[in-house]
Specification:
- The chain is of the alpha/beta class.
- The chain has helices at residues 15-27, 47-57, 62-75, 86-92, 94-100, 118-126, 141-150, 172-180, 197-203, 214-221, 225-232; strands at 3-9, 32-36, 79-84, 106-109, 130-131, 133-135, 155-158, 188-191, 209-212.
- The mean pLDDT is 92.
- The chain has a nine-stranded parallel sheet.
- α1 (15-27) packs parallel to α3 and α4 (86-92) packs across α5.
- The termini are close together.
- The relative contact order is 0.16.
- The protein has one domain (3-232): TIM Barrel.
- The chain has eleven helices and nine strands.
- 44% of the residues lie in helices and 17% in strands.
């Protein structure tokens, strides 16, 4: 069965609507949540998510995000992941960050390649926090096999070149790598560009699930989030 995850920016558009969206995701049976801790210099986020994150950063700080994530954890019954960047973790200290956020299921660091992941992964493991590795259509097969053999949580497959929010397509290089990741013992989740139920069906021919970010943020901002969940979950 194809899993569907939703990406939300922490406390966007405000605390009340953010937590209401978390509640709706729980009620509609979303398989996992990926909640972004805003960062001032994102490298993977497209215009929509970057704008949302910068808007939140103008009024909130790490203490606010911690409180919001604790509340989200109390609401959402399935897996909860945090997505952010290495500098956010470094600023708090890797050990301190892991200890404080030990209530989450996993962490996604968008700017940490596989070769630099061990310093984070080993610490998070001590707190039973999974570390999500990224692979792309350009990932070489040696690295792909190392990710496959060492993954301790889902593998995040970035479907397109560039940032989030583009058109979803799966070409030969991507399909070849998705096929190679089979048998890892972990779910392979496709992200970047997923918007519609047709996109989900296309991705799940080769993967175990998808994560939807940009489209979810757009719908939340237009007060159409519940209808969106009804359509895609």
């Amino acid at each position: 069965m194809c899993k569907v995850g939703i990406y939300l920016v922490c406390d966007y558009p405000d605390r009340g609507r953010f937590l209401e969206a978390v509640k709706q995701c729980d009620e509609f049976g979303v398989d996992f949540l990926e909640i972004g801790i805003p960062f001032s210099d994102p490298t993977a986020d497209g215009d929509v998510i970057e704008k949302a994150a910068l808007e939140v950063l103008e009024r909130e700080n790490m203490e606010d995000f911690y409180d919001a994530l604790k509340s989200a954890r109390e609401i959402f019954k399935r897996k909860l992941y945090v997505m952010t960047y290495a500098n956010v973790v470094y600023a708090n200290g890797i050990e301190s960050f892991a200890k404080r956020f030990s209530f989450i299921d996993g962490v996604i660091l968008a700017d940490v390649p596989f070769r630099e992941s061990r310093r984070f992964k080993n610490v998070f493991k001590r707190y039973d926090i999974g570390f999500v590795h990224f692979v792309t259509p350009e990932t070489d097969f040696e690295t792909l096999d190392r990710v496959k053999n060492s993954a301790n949580d889902f593998i995040y497959f970035i479907s397109i070149r560039g940032t989030t929010g583009g058109k979803f397509e799966l070409y030969g290089d991507a399909i070849e790598r998705l096929e190679r990741l089979k048998g890892s013992g972990q779910d392979v989740i496709v992200g970047f560009g997923i918007k519609t139920s047709d996109d989900i069906k296309k991705a799940c021919r080769y993967a175990d699930g998808v994560v939807i970010g940009t489209e979810a943020i757009k719908r939340l901002n237009r007060d159409g989030f519940k209808q969106f969940l009804e359509h895609i979950v």
